Amino acid sequence: MSTLHARIQEERAKYPAGSSSAVMPALRLAQEEYGWLSPDALREVADALETTPAFCKSIASFYDQFHLAPIGEHLVEVCTNVSCAVVGAQQVVEAFEDALGCRAGETSPDGKVTLRTIECLGGCGWGTIVSVDHRYRTRVRAEDVPSILEELDDGR
Amino acid sequence: MAAELDEIVLANATTRLAEYEAAGGYRALAKARAMTPAEVTDELIASELRGRGGAFFPTGRKWSFVPSKEQLPKPHYLVVNADESEPGSFKDNEILSRVPHRFIEGCLITAHAIDCTHVFVYIRGEYSGPYEILVGALEELHGRPDLRGDVTIVVHRGAGAYICGEETALLESLEGKRGQPRSKPPFPAVSGLYAAPTVVNNVETITSVPPVIAMGAAEYVKLGVPNTRGSRVVSISGNVVNGGNYEIEAGMSLREIVYGLGGGIADGRELKAVVPGGSSTVILRADEIDVGYDFDSLARLSTAMGSAGIIVLDDRCCIVQLGLRFSEFYEHESCGKCTPCREGTRWLTAILRKIEDGRASQDELDLLLDVCDRINGKCLCPLGDSDAIIVASYVAKFRDEFQAHIDQGGCPFGGHSSLDGVLAPVAMHAHAPAAGVPA
């Protein structure tokens, strides 16, 4: 695969010269490469875009999907907005908390899974929606949680 | 009452170009390109198609506001809003996943109408599935210069911010800035993306364009009711038997949508209320749903179709908790640019939390409505207004329930509400209470 620097240049070419539009795709690429946006990663993005790390961080900090601290190997996000909540989202959150030994907003003690609640994921009629490593699981119930976590174990 | 409708936006679901073409796809594009841009825009004006993102602005008129390149020598842009994030709405997810080529055909027709060669599709970052389907469809289009012509379509992924669904915040984000709304005017049609004339349209609006051109405005306008023409893809969720997306003819009654298409209330419960058009719309009590699902009928009840996210709530839903959970949402998503929204959403959340916990005095119920007044109409964009409008509507329509929390010193549902204890992202980490709110 081409270097991160080269892939960021490909993104820049999609937008008018002189615009900052490639900053979000560049941050996404860097996060996919390193797992989170460390100071070093922000420096690398800034160099590739010919801008400053502070500018890159100001963008990254605005959006929920960018991680400015390390997360676990896997990311589990449970939608707890109203449509999912009224069909049992909180029970799903608690089942994950019990199975992982951490609270929502934290990473399991073994570092494998970061768990968090998330605002509406846009799958309201198929709730509860759980996004596992950015893939939606639909109609998740609390009793489905062990098999979801087993799949993550098998995937390694 | 409107009749059953054959799907026109969601018809002939396929992600493959060849299959779409075999079913008549891309013929509307050929028809449009045989017309002048002005003729296409006139056809859209005659169709009375209005924006499906929530604001319901007449689509053809929006296109007509773009100045000619002689008047203003700058490139024109089409930006498609695929940042669907309104709680209750998931129609654009399904449209992009099921009929990506009809969506792309709509982009190409619109580009022709507004004399533009650059289209940006801003899709919410969480939609990995629809994103990959769309990119796959665009790769197929790349091999068909006869279809794409000189138009370039770039898909730009968001990264988790509801505010970017507001069109000027979306443009800021697309320019590589924090997604904070701009003050208007100037409007995007004159000064939008990169300060150039820009049309911003929702996914469903764009996907409605090929059917409008294919059947002609004269036929399209026969669908629906006055002021709300054509079809509408509605999202049904919550305590219903058959949650999902359904394409209806505008004007079908809300009762028919909930009990017919949605299959009625799940678990044999009683209907309590319906949020008719996404979290930002005024709530309807169970006795208010014999209403046409169209602009005028809903406006008579001071509410709206919004982004067509119909959230059905049964008798286990505590309305104070409903207001609290939505306020937590708006607080989390407030960009912080303007004061009434930044401060107000925090205050609404804090006061609603006190009421729910049974710690609020009678005065604080008045304070809640006072804060709503101090937000509503005073913000740069509709986000803060939405929180204020819906909370005020909950108090207006379910005042007894708010009063019971205060009188009983706690929630009358006693821990058995369907929303009890739900953990919002904004509450995931302990944070300081809003300054000045009595503890």
Describe this structure in words.
The complex is a heterodimer of chains A (156) and B (439). With 156 residues, chain A is an alpha+beta fold. Chain A has two domains: 4-60, Arc Repressor Mutant, subunit A, CATH 1.10.10; 74-153, Glutaredoxin. Chain A has seven helices and five strands; from the N terminus they run ααααβααββββα. Chain A has helices at 4-12, 23-34, 39-49, 53-60, 82-85, 89-100, 145-154; strands at 74-79, 106-107, 113-118, 130-132, 135-137. A five-stranded mixed sheet of chain A has the order 2-3-1-4-5, covered by helices on one side. The radius of gyration of chain A is 18 Å and the shape is elongated. The mean pLDDT of chain A is 96. Chain B has helices at residues 17-22, 27-33, 37-47, 59-64, 91-98, 100-113, 128-142, 145-148, 167-174, 203-215, 217-220, 254-261, 295-299, 319-333, 339-357, 362-375, 382-397, 399-408; strands spanning 77-82, 118-123, 152-157, 198-202, 224-225, 228-229, 231-238, 244-249, 271-275, 284-285, 309-314. With 439 residues, chain B is of the alpha/beta class. Chains A and B meet through α2, α5, α6 and β3 of A and β3, β7, β11 and α14 of B.
